[in-house]
Design brief:
This protein has helices at about 15-25, 65-75, and strands at about 30, 35-40, 60, 80-85, 90-95, 100-110. The chain contains two helices and six strands. By secondary structure, the protein is of the alpha+beta class. Strands 3-6-5-4 form a four-stranded mixed sheet, with helices on one face. The two termini are about 20 Å apart. This is VOC domain-containing protein.
Amino acid sequence: MISGAHVILYSQDPEADRAFIRDVLDLPGVDAGGGWLIFKLPPAEVAVHPADGPTRHELFLMCDDLDSQLDEFRARGVAITRPVSEQRWGKVTAIRLPSGAELPLYQPLHPTAHSQ
């Protein structure tokens, strides 16, 4: 039986991104040894989309109220890297990690599987 999922973010500055996830996103975690932090994620779901080119994988953090979440991030000095885009499936944007990478964030407007 599948008991969970393990997501890997590759980073040019893993220490800074780990500190951001711990201190700014407030995700609890464990030290797997030597300061190698692994974070607990909120409930998750997986979707399979068609690919027009090479296959790839994406990670989006989800929130219930995107506008409030962005206000909280701005108050903490987090850079919002994309204007909020309203799609039929949700409202989407992205934030900047300390390494410079973007982390997409969205508020789903579709039924969610993780609450089932």
